[in-house]
Amino acid sequence: MGTAVNKVDLFGGGAAAAPERVYRDLRARIIDFDLPPGSTLSRGELTAQYRVSQTPVREALQRLEQEGLVRIFPQSRTVVSKIDVRQLSETHFLRVSVETEVVRRLASGDGVDVVGRAKAIVDMQEILVGTEDQMPMFSDLDRTFHRTLFEGVGMESLHALLLVRLGHLYRCQRLELPLEGKMRSIVDAHRSILDGLSRRHPPAAVDAMRRHLSGTISRVEAIRGEHPDYFTDDDFRWGGG
Asked: Could you read off the pLDDT of 179-230 as tens digits, one per residue?
């Protein structure tokens, strides 16, 4: 599997203890398809790559299994899981419910400071539009944008809870991101959300967020058709925006 590299930190923060460091890096590599579905993860190889003992690797893999990103076969092997379409549907429902409430509260209250910070993030995304080699950075900025909104209402812990459910959705987004115009549509959607927040108009902010979160999820079947080996065979149910 080659030498482990430091991937984009999806969780923010700086230095981390060994189990957390291994977990973050493996999760990022799975989401970026450096480790696609079906990849076998050898604990022995991982301990050598990360220069850690078996314990941090075991703990990291157990966390990834709880998120459904890997499947551990005791005394045998660990395999990167396929994208779970049923979990995608549940995650979309949960995320829309939570994030529309976040922007409703921001638009109803004092969200000026948040708008400024979020706008700076979107401005950085704007620079990266159309640069395929910078997609990981673009995706990291996307997640930072959403995390910043949660911080604006003091819900960082809720964001952390939601984050562990988003692995399958993040992989689906990563498959869609190279499509022509996708990066532009994300930036435009973020600016629409910020417009609703700046105008202190809760309905506009909520509608913009709902439409934004429904972008990738509305194309799950098309994405699965393009990458059938990456998805489970379960029926996908999407109730719309």
From this structure: 999 999 999 999 999 999 999 999 999 999 999 999 888 899 999 999 999 9
**What sign for the dihedral angle of Cα 108, 112, 115, 117?**
negative
Distance CA 92, CA 83 (A): 14
Identify the CA nearest to 86 among candidates 159, 210, 169, 29. Answer: 169
Region of residue 165 (left: phi > 0; alpha: psi -120 to 50; beta: else):
alpha
Distance CA 65, CA 223 (A): 24
pTM of the model: 0.85
Element (H or E) spanning 71, and its range? Answer: strand 70-73
User: Which residue type occupies 175?
Assistant: L
Rounded to 5 degrees, φ, ψ at 79 are -125, 140
* 1 compared with 34, residue with greater pLDDT: 34
